[in-house]
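Q: I'm writing a short explainer about N-formylglutamate amidohydrolase for a general audience and would like to include a description of its predicted shape. Could you first generate the structure from this sequence?
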Amino acid sequence: MHKLSIKEIIKKINTEEPFHAIADDYSFTLKIDSYSHYICGAVHDGHQFRKELWSNCLHTEYDRWYEEDPATKQMVQNHPIVIAGCDSRFEYDLNRAPEYAIYEDAWGKELWKAPLKADTKNRSLEKHDNFYRVVHELVSKIESKYGAAIVYDMHSYNWRRWDREVPVINLGTSNIDNARYATFADSWSKILSQIELPINTPVTSAINDTFQGNGYFLKYITQNFKNTLVLATEFSKIYCHELQHIIYPEVVYAISQGLKNQLPLHAKTFYDQFIV
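A: Of course. Here's the predicted structure. Afterward I'll give you a sentence or two in plain language.
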């Protein structure tokens, strides 16, 4: 992996050069083994939190971890194109529009002891902007190369805060073009429910049950690219113990293996059917 500037990353994308990079501000990683017709994203995988923010933050390190999506990058690490955030959503949220990306409060609790200064916010928003500059170039390259693209937008959610039974996997599709793409969402949901996991509950999958797919990553790509489908895919945190701050690596591995086998097949079905 190489540390690259945004300009260098974009240049490599434009020339279709495979590379593994971390942005020179250490805010996100991008791995491109080959320029395939599908992309995997994990915008909330990051946990980094700038040291200058520590003393002003009312949330603990555990509070932040609880609301992030740990291990979502690891779930898709086997795929040819993976872009993932390194910074915590508590610094700036890549799944929110820039004007809402910096929290004032988070999940009902004030976040800062004192309001953030403008220059502090701007440093974070510059990283948000850089990420989307690269996303734009990446999706543009794949869509222009193949005529269409599909993006698997990986997330997780805290199932323990729900007071009802919830699915192990939820797809949010309210902001995709369902007239064109609903069959691909349905087939992806069915495929996900067939992944075998070492957990003591059936692997259930649903569409628009716990979340509806309202994130900015999905909306940005959908609004800027006519022929790219983004599937917001959320695993409930059955792969960790939310309350004890423990990751279950055997479950993460099983998810990654299931996706390694099934995700490319689904992407090929999309490519074959949509392009033809």
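A: For your explainer, you could say: The domain at 2-275 is CATH 3.40.630.40 (Aminopeptidase).
Q: Perfect, that's easy to follow.
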